[in-house]
Amino acid sequence: MAPKRSHDEHGTGAEAEGRAKKPRKGFSVGPENLPDGTYRRKVQKIKKDLIHKAKLKRSYAKIKAQEAELSSSVPVPPLIAPDEESKLELHPERQAMLDEPNSESTPDRKFDERPSRSRVRKPKPVPFEREAKLAKRRRLDAEARKKEREESDRQRQQKLEQRERFRKAMAKARTGGRNGQRKLGRESEVLLKRVQRVMSE
Predict the structure, then answer these.
(1) How many CA atoms lie within 13 A of 165 on its CB side?
(2) How many Å apart are CA 154 and CA 22, to the nearest integer?
(3) How far is CA 16 from CA 3, 23, 24, 30, 37, in A?
(4) Is the pLDDT confidence value at 105 over 80?
(5) How many CA atoms lie within 13 Å of 136's alpha carbon, on the beta-carbon side?
(6) Segment holding 126, helix H or strand E
(7) Confidence (pLDDT) at 61
(8) Each residue of 15-66: pLDDT tens digit?
(9) For residues 12 and 25, what is the distance between their CA atoms, to the nearest angstrom?
């Protein structure tokens, strides 16, 4: 039987922590057993983006801290001392404007001549404007095709009805009379109408 180890052999404090501490391996994104391909490259790209963003945040925080130190350590001198302010004289036109009561009836011409940025605004971009135009054009094309189809169906129906009337009229004219002879008067009228219709087309 093996002898038991005492508590002193394990080490105490920092020595035990140093032995037990494993090296950090960073962070992982996605499963580790992916084959080399699209999904693995996607996971690697996500990881690179995360690392890049973290570095940017860290550098931004450093710069911000430096600026805060500089601004707190270096006092900004005022541009104009309060006693100098009273010594400065205003331009006569500006002084006249300040002395006048608010009169908006006589606006300054120079001010009106300059183009105002707030007046000249580009129209707000409409999302899916191109797709909406395409859809509208397709809808109009579909309506036009539907009308053409309905018109051709109507004309076909008219021709079928005319043929049916002509066939019935010819059948009626070909039937024999009282003595079994064909009715040439009726047959000639039907044939004359057919010739006129063909000539008109």
Answers:
(1) 10
(2) 87
(3) 21, 15, 17, 33, 43
(4) no
(5) 6
(6) none
(7) 95
(8) 555 566 777 777 888 888 888 888 889 999 999 999 999 999 999 999 999 9
(9) 26
**In 74-183, where does DSSP find H-type helix?**
82-87, 92-99, 109-113, 129-174
Please give the single-letter amino acid code of residue 16: A
d(CA 187, CA 162): 16
Cα dihedral 134, 138, 144, 146 in deg (nearest 10): -170
CB within 8 Å of 19: residues ≥ 6 apart:
11
Cβ neighbours around 196 below 10 Å, total: 10
Q: From 194, 161, 191, 196, select the one nearest 173 (Cα to Cα).
A: 191
93, two tokens? 């036109």
**pLDDT number for residue 72:** 79
Residue 165 pLDDT greater than 90, yes or no: no
In the predicted model, what is the mean pLDDT of residues 159-173?
A: 86
Is residue 182 a contact partner of residue 173, using CB atoms and an 8 Å limit?
Answer: yes
- Report field, pTM of the whole predicted structure over 0.70: no
